[in-house]
Amino acid sequence: MDVTNKKYTFHLEAFNGPLELLMHLIEKNKIDIYDIPIAELTRQYLDYLEAMREMDMEVTSSFLVMAATLLQIKSRMMLPKKKAEESEEEEDPRQELVERLLEYRRFKKVSEVLGSMADLQEHFVGRAPLDLPVHHLPPASLDLSLLITAFREVMSIKEEAEIPAAIVQPEPYHIEDKMEEIKAALQSHGGRMRFEDAFERGTRNELVVTFLALLELIKQQSVSVEQAHLFGTITIAWRGEKK
């Protein structure tokens, strides 16, 4: 994985933040995110910052803070290994960085799903309402921005959830599984349930995957998310399998 400044001379991408840059390097070099070779990643990251300076690109403080963090992790990884029984209890110096990268990747996935849903909406054209009497009109589907706000409120409640274990474990949650769980929950609730009931239990990571699963079901038009009136209860309703 030989990365030199020459590779950045002709095309230097602009990144919104240090996590985006780190994720780019990890994906580009097919690095195992759960077992990051911190010395190599640090070298590549610093090479990139140096290339940015050479091309007069602004290096914000957040990039420098991450550089210091990587160097600190690298120095901790170079310390002599302790006895086996002590090392089992000692936290991996890379743990916090891995957790931040995993959370960044999940929320990036959320933004990608929302973007694809927004693109899908552009293909729909509204029409004038028919001059016919309508009875028991169901609530309109909830605006995506309000749905995201509702999810953020749920996440804020979970902010003080259980402390993660010392060893980072692979993500055990899959969108497809969570989609099935939402369907089962809706069936047990008679086809309708409150939005917050879908996020009643689980860690922050699990809740993010559940939210992605809900967005996918909305995209497939298998469920709708409704709010009868402003500030009212948000409801998830089953619409059936769509072919």
TrEMBL record:
<keyword id="KW-0131">Cell cycle</keyword>
<comment type="subunit">
    <text>Component of a cohesin-like complex composed of ScpA, ScpB and the Smc homodimer, in which ScpA and ScpB bind to the head domain of Smc. The presence of the three proteins is required for the association of the complex with DNA.</text>
</comment>
<comment type="function">
    <text>Participates in chromosomal partition during cell division. May act via the formation of a condensin-like complex containing Smc and ScpB that pull DNA away from mid-cell into both cell halves.</text>
</comment>
<comment type="similarity">
    <text>Belongs to the ScpA family.</text>
</comment>
<dbReference type="GO" id="GO:0005737">
    <property type="term" value="C:cytoplasm"/>
</dbReference>
<dbReference type="GO" id="GO:0007059">
    <property type="term" value="P:chromosome segregation"/>
</dbReference>
<keyword id="KW-0963">Cytoplasm</keyword>
<keyword id="KW-0159">Chromosome partition</keyword>
<protein>
    <recommendedName>
        <fullName>Segregation and condensation protein A</fullName>
    </recommendedName>
</protein>
<dbReference type="InterPro" id="IPR023093">
    <property type="entry name" value="ScpA-like_C"/>
</dbReference>
<dbReference type="InterPro" id="IPR003768">
    <property type="entry name" value="ScpA"/>
</dbReference>
<keyword id="KW-0132">Cell division</keyword>
<dbReference type="GO" id="GO:0006260">
    <property type="term" value="P:DNA replication"/>
</dbReference>
<dbReference type="GO" id="GO:0051301">
    <property type="term" value="P:cell division"/>
</dbReference>
<dbReference type="Pfam" id="PF02616">
    <property type="entry name" value="SMC_ScpA"/>
</dbReference>
